[in-house]
Design a protein that fits this description.
47% of the residues lie in helices and 14% in strands. By secondary structure, the protein is α+β, with helices and mostly antiparallel strands. It has a four-stranded antiparallel sheet with strand order 2-3-7-6, with no helix packed on it. Strands 1-4-5 form a three-stranded mixed sheet, covered by helices on one side. A hairpin with a 7-residue loop joins strand 4 and strand 5. The longest helix has 31 residues. 48% of the residues are buried.
């Protein structure tokens, strides 16, 4: 699997600047990932997918990130959406979704004025869903819909919608991960059949299906929750590896530190030490991420982790993100101002790491707070989903 990803890296790297400029993955990059079969990473084997474990998932996505973090992000988030959809959606929707194992799936729970109304046979949904990664290259979208009730609060339900039935506002114009196509999905009175909606399960003691359709397939297992976090981190792990590649190549060349006695950068002991520290930080972030993957991969299908253990693993991922930022600063120092030239991939890797490590899953001011509350047995958790 890693060899397939490695073979796609030159194509992704060649088109990385275009991907960023066009605010979506280049067609050649999408084709390279599809040809490698890597859009099927989390599709069940009985549906023609690869159904890889999280360790393999992290390794493959990080390898793609060495070439183009934006394309790696699209690969990871599509895989995460498939994991979630395969867990909660009714069987009929799963069969539709996985009919093409290589289809790209967008998803968003960032709702703006979004709602659903029950109608015969399904829902009518209207609203906007922001930051829907891969929106312009996806076949399907999983959107979180508040379904309004005549009496009582709305019920939040995931719904599977073909992207051809939605419109896209090109709202994601960021300084990093610009090519992820994380735009806004817009629905205007779109009909969603009951079979594509994950209604909540009936209340305890009620054997009937949820009103309006089949119940959801179940809660989110640890693999889905932590897979989402690793889907955030793996592309920027790859970006940091790509940055190491750029600076390592500079060490191998004739470039010398300006105004010094050294004939080459590699002759400077502290330059070598700086690069060693950067490499160690990236390796440490990788080890932390793979540790989390191994813990979750070892769980049984219905096994859950206790809150303290979940918080510990979440801290590992958040700390890994901070290590990647630290490594990037050292690599930029080593390369100097030329690393910020627009035609230098180092500055793109830097911007992608800066943006990716600030995803809400990795919040360095919230995740440690949750960890501390659990350490001291304080009630009322801060994080709604750990």
């Amino acid at each position: 699997m890693l060899e397939r990803a490695r073979a796609a890296v030159p194509t992704l790297s060649e088109h990385a600047a275009r991907t960023e400029r066009d605010l979506r993955p280049a067609p050649e990059s999408v084709a390279a990932v599809r040809q490698a079969g890597l859009f099927a990473l989390t599709v069940p084997r009985d549906a023609g997918g690869l159904d890889v474990d999280l360790r393999t998932f992290v390794g493959v996505v990080a390898e793609l990130g060495r070439g183009c973090p934006s394309t790696a992000w699209v690969t990871a988030f599509s895989a995460g959406a498939k994991m979630m959809a395969g867990t909660v959606l009714p069987d009929e929707a799963r069969h539709e979704l996985f009919a093409d194992p290589d289809a790209i799936v967008s998803s968003s729970g960032v709702m703006v004025g979004s709602s659903g109304h029950r109608v015969p046979g399904g829902l009518r949904i209207t609203g906007r869903w922001r930051m829907a990664s891969s929106s312009e290259v996806a076949t399907w979208a999983v959107v979180i819909v508040p379904v309004l009730a005549d009496d009582g609060p709305a019920t939040v339900c995931p719904a599977l919608v073909p992207t051809v039935e939605l419109t896209i506002e090109r709202s994601w114009q960021a300084v990093g991960l610009a090519g992820t196509s994380s735009h806004t999905l817009v629905a205007d009175d779109v009909f969603v059949p009951t079979a594509r909606v994950a209604f909540p399960p009936p209340p305890p003691g009620d054997a009937s299906a949820a009103p309006g359709g089949p119940p959801a397939r179940g809660g989110l297992p640890a693999k889905v929750v932590f897979g989402a976090g690793m889907g955030v981190l793996a592309p920027v792990l790859g970006a940091a590896r790509g940055a190491l590649d750029v600076v390592e190549e500079m060490f191998a060349g004739p470039r010398a530190p300006f105004g010094t006695i050294y004939q080459r950068l590699v002759d400077s002991p502290l330059a070598r030490y700086w690069f060693t520290e950067a490499t160690f930080l990236v390796d440490s972030a990788t080890r932390r991420t793979l540790r989390v993957a191994d813990v979750v991969d070892a769980l049984g299908p219905d096994e859950q982790l206790p809150p303290r253990r979940r918080a510990d693993l979440r801290m590992d991922l958040t700390t890994a993100a901070q290590e990647l930022r630290g490594a990037m600063e050292k690599l930029l120092d080593l390369h100097g101002a030329s690393g910020f030239a627009q035609d230098n991939p180092l500055q793109r890797f830097w911007r992608d790491v800066a943006v990716g490590t600030r995803h809400p899953y990795l919040m360095p001011h919230i995740v440690p707070e949750e960890y501390g509350r659990l350490l001291f047995d304080l009630a009322d958790p801060v994080l709604l989903m750990l």
